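#lab-general

N.A. 3:47 PM
ok so I finally got the sequence cleaned up, no stray characters, all 448 residues accounted for. can someone with queue access submit it? mine expired

B.Y. 3:52 PM
send it over

N.A. 3:53 PM
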Amino acid sequence: MENKSKFWKGVLVGALVMAFAGLTIVGISTGIFLIGKSIVRNQAQVQVQGTDGGAAVDQSDINWNQVDNKARKIQSIVQQYFLFDENGQRVEDYIYKGLMAGLDDPYSVYYTKEEFKDLMEETSGEYCGIGALVSKDMKTGVVSIAKVFKGTPAEKAGLRNGDMFYEVDGMAVTADMDLDILVKQHVKGEEGTTVHLKMYRPSTESYVEVDVVRQKIEVPTVEHEMKADKLGYVAVAQFDDVKVTGKQFQEAVEDLESQGMEGLLIDLRGNPGGVLDTAVMMIDYMLPDDLKEYADENGKTLVVSTADKNGEGKRYYCEDGHSVDIPVVILVDGNSASASEVFSGALKDYGRAKLVGTTTFGKGIVQTLLPLGDGSAVKLTTAHYYSPSGFDLHGVGLEPDVEVEFEPPENVDADYVFTDEDDNQMQKALEVLEEMVDTNETQAEPAA
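B.Y. 4:20 PM
back already:
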């Protein structure tokens, strides 16, 4: 009887959950969900969204009497015939997971207490892991390495961008796995421990098995260098916390400016997104505060806006008094998503940058973390976001001004070391940027 009660309690709680307002972020389109210090700091500001202090009102078309009867019947059958011992807590957890899975939204998920605790682990730029940015293609379910960071265990083990996860410590990596949990519970771990990875390498159509020793990693989310002809290059791997990625981006641009930079290439290929506030801060740093194309009564440069199911949302503006007034090109591809698209879309709308590469992923929806008060939580899709012109890119993506598919070099073996000359997209982007500098084109044509 106790098991029956616990089983049904899970169904009921899943239906009548009291939602709490968490920090809104732009979730990572390919599946990575970044939680930075800003979320940890704002937990004390979480507010109840219930109705008049009572239980949430069910307005769905679910027949809960039918669910009640069927759940009890199944539980009775389980107790009568199931060969093995039942794990009541696991069953209860999967009731909640099933409620979220039934929404048919790959970005809306339930986190157990343990999973949510792992998810809320500090991501202030340091962690014990392998030193690679891992992403998931939500269309195919494939988990792969978006970027191997220099000087990390992943690089020393010979892992490469594009390598696909097949097994982690003998556990098969399947399409239905939550990426956050895969990374935090299986890829990351205690410093000095070893994780065995079996990867599929598309470039050589072969499997690669490596042992990687985890160590404390300082994540270099932004890298920069000066290319030929005073063309600055900044690569942003992900939009981590403002104090991490935002600060690194500002420092990178200022360093390049001190070297006489005349044009800026921002590489967002493979960047799955991250924290919305970081994207807003970086756009604010790039754009003047008083652009009028899409201004409202505020008079400030509109960066991005959001709208929930009731048409209510928030509008973000430039206000830091700073701008970068040199030609800008942004490199994008099909894995540039979410916060990457917020950044690219704003600069494109105002004609302050040209996009080079391929159409972006197309994730124009916002996820919100909603703690449930008992240590568990749900991540729920709660709003659309729109570029300054009002463009809804969800499911569509941003089309580049100059389209160029990546063409990998031919006849390479597993030990081949790629160089800038092998990157035809980068070469084209630098060519476009140099033309803009030569013609003194400080900005592109605004989007229609």
